[in-house]
Automatic annotation (TrEMBL):
It comes from Prosthecodimorpha staleyi. Residues 1-20 form the signal peptide. Keywords: Signal. This is Cellulose biosynthesis protein BcsS. Residues 267-307 are annotated as: Disordered.
Length: 307
């Protein structure tokens, strides 16, 4: 009996010592899982935003082209559609060659601001060319790819109009953000007017100046048929305060329709939209002017104006 009680006491003492040792050990902290938030969580469009731009410049062409100054105004409004989609409306107007040109365009797209944009685009443009009223419509796929400080943007689709053949076209731009607020870009397009290249720069003023929503830009164009142009202007952005690179990836896509006026000028420079003059040596008489049976001598003489 005494031995049994002694054994029980030993067991209890050992258990108490073990418990005391466990309590004396430092507790290992447990860190709860925290979701990692990356750029992929951003909306396709950060919120309702817009921009207005004004520009002026000068265009040159071949010997039959009347060199002239031109000006344009354009505006865009972009809005989110849920988390992953967005839409944008563009309106533009310009004066060139003493005529007015206007355009309306629309974008509907999916976008991940850290990766890419993919959507559809359509616009319409109208002006008065030397040959008469000119109307153009375009429907295209639109895409953008974001690679660190490089952005690749393009639209490619079909164009049609009253003075052009229905055909494919492409307009592509590569942009390098030397800083968050300085964009240098180069572009190329192929459409009814032929090939045209362009290059430019856009700089957003520092937020510390109180003008952080204002950007200055300049652009030069060179195309077929001796066409060339230079322009400069100002853009005013509306929406959240952010860098220029973030504006272009989180807010509004490119306003593609502002390039159509340059294509029209290039086509005029190439004589495509110009009335063809009647040749001075073209006969104006018909076989009936000399009688039914005899061949009219005036119609065999290229210099004759009447029988």
């Amino acid at each position: 009996m005494r031995a049994t009680m002694l054994a029980g006491a030993v067991v209890l003492t050992a258990a108490s010592a073990a418990n005391a040792a466990d309590l004396s050990r430092p507790l290992v902290p447990v860190t709860p899982a925290v979701p990692v938030v990356t750029q992929q969580a951003l909306d396709a469009v950060s919120g309702l935003n817009g921009k207005i731009e004004g520009a002026g410049g000068y265009e040159w062409g071949d010997k039959t082209f009347r060199d002239h100054a031109f000006g344009r105004l354009a505006g865009s409004v972009a809005m989110p559609i849920g988390h992953s989609f967005g839409a944008q409306l563009d309106v533009a107007g310009e004066t060139a060659r003493g005529e007015f040109g206007g355009a309306v365009g629309g974008h509907l797209f999916w976008r991940n601001p850290s990766f890419a944009l993919l959507g559809v685009y359509a616009d319409g443009y109208t002006t008065k060319a030397p040959k008469g009223d000119f109307n153009l419509g375009r429907v295209a796929a639109e895409g953008e790819l974001y690679l660190d400080r490089v952005s690749l943007s393009a639209i490619a689709g079909v164009e049609y109009g009253n003075m052009v053949k229905t055909r494919g076209f492409i307009d592509a731009v590569a942009s390098l953000y030397a800083t968050d607020d300085l964009r240098v870009y180069a572009g190329w397009r192929n459409d009814f007017a032929g090939n045209q290249g362009r290059g430019g720069v856009e700089y957003q003023l520092p937020a510390s100046t109180g003008w952080g929503n204002v950007a200055l830009f300049a652009e030069g164009r060179v195309g077929e048929h001796g066409y060339a142009a230079g322009l400069g202007g100002v853009k005013v952005y509306f929406g959240q305060q952010k860098s220029l690179m973030r504006r272009h990836r989180e807010d509004d896509p490119d306003t593609w329709s502002t390039q159509t006026g340059g294509a029209v000028a290039q086509a005029i420079s190439g004589g495509q939209l110009v009335k063809k003059k009647k040749k001075p040596d073209e006969p104006t008489c018909t076989p009936g002017d000399a009688g039914r049976d005899a061949p009219p001598p005036c119609c065999t003489d290229k210099n004759a104006r009447a029988c």
